[in-house]
From TrEMBL:
Residues 58-120 form the HTH iclR-type domain. SUPFAM superfamilies: GAF domain-like, Winged helix' DNA-binding domain. Keywords: DNA-binding, Transcription, Transcription regulation. One of its GO terms (molecular function) is DNA binding. PROSITE patterns: HTH_ICLR (PS51077), ICLR_ED (PS51078). This is IclR family transcriptional regulator. Residues 14-36 have a biased composition (Basic and acidic residues). Residues 1-57 are annotated as: Disordered.
């Protein structure tokens, strides 16, 4: 799956006379106010030479807002070409704004290096403002101790747009195709760590994310409707942990707990035949102790 996607058609908007039209961008609305106040130069604002207009600082701020607004609609990323069309700027100018935002971690490149998406300093991106190196420094030794007995892998998972991303995976059998790799993305509704992450969000946010991503079932046991998933989240919040049995793969069980303070979850997976019902409560206790240590390390 490519990390970047092109824009679809603009959402419907109607002008003051009722005719369909394009919704004004923030920068266009600002232009109108500046013109009314007599602060916009006769030749407007020259994109290639911003210093020619007294309004250029405000215009620059507004352009940045346009870019951020556009990226919030596409958490998986967008290409430079798509962004320049969306915000009605030349590619060169769009690139300059993106470069400045990237330097300050408000924007980052997608994994394929082609597109851009919102970065770790903002706005509901995974792992909030926590530095990944600091997070993993605390998590790795904890996760290594959790992988024993019937546990095949330990997963540290964070929210990534409408999905979750595996921040780190410790596994006995990394070549097993049922074990995700670090950096892989997965659906919220088919994994224990995905459910534990979703349980930390408001129901309205979860419903919007699931509507955006779809709820394609991985097995016949997968949750397939938003109301069913929301009911399960209420149960997870009450119990303090999430459990999946044969929902991602037909022979795999997962258990996960939230990590306080960030949209993160720590989970264990194993074969359903060996990670049996009686082993779930001790697995939850071990996860909770590890998650508490991890949460303290993130403060």
């Amino acid at each position: 799956m490519s990390g970047a996607q092109e824009w679809g058609p603009a959402s419907e908007f109607r002008n003051g006379d009722g005719r369909p039209g394009r919704r004004p961008r923030a920068s266009e609305a600002l232009d109108g106010h500046l013109d009314e106040a007599g602060l916009l130069g006769d030749d407007g604002w020259a994109d290639g030479d911003e210093s020619d207009s007294r309004s250029s600082p405000l215009r620059a701020v507004s352009r940045v807002c346009d870019i951020i607004d556009a990226l919030t609609q596409h958490p998986d990323g967008a290409t430079l070409s798509a962004l320049s069309v969306e915000v009605d700027l030349p590619k060169s100018s769009t690139f300059r704004y993106l470069a400045a935002l990237e330097m300050r971690d408000y924007v980052e490149r997608t994994l394929d290096g082609v597109g851009y998406r919102l970065g770790p300093r903002n706005f509901g991106r995974p792992v909030g403002a926590v530095r990944p190196d600091r997070l993993l420094l605390t998590a790795k030794p904890l996760m290594e101790r959790l992988v024993d007995g019937p546990v095949e892998a330990c997963l540290l998972t964070g929210l990534d747009g409408s999905h979750v991303r595996y921040q780190w995976v410790t596994s006995k059998f990394p070549a097993d195709p049922r074990v995700p790799r670090t950096g892989d993305r997965d659906a919220l509704h088919t994994t224990a760590t995905g459910k534990a992450v979703a349980a930390q969000l408001a129901d309205e946010s979860v419903a919007a994310l699931l509507t955006a991503s779809g709820m394609r079932p991985a097995t016949g046991r997968s949750v397939q409707t938003v109301p069913q998933f929301l009911r399960e989240l209420h149960h997870i919040r009450g119990e303090g942990y999430a459990l999946t049995t044969n929902e991602r793969y037909p022979d795999v069980r997962g258990v996960a707990v939230p990590v306080g303070g960030e949209p993160l979850a720590l989970g264990l997976v194993g074969l359903t035949a060996t990670l049996t019902d009686d082993l779930v409560p001790p697995a939850v206790r071990r996860l909770r102790r590890a998650a508490a240590v991890l949460a303290r390390g993130l403060r």
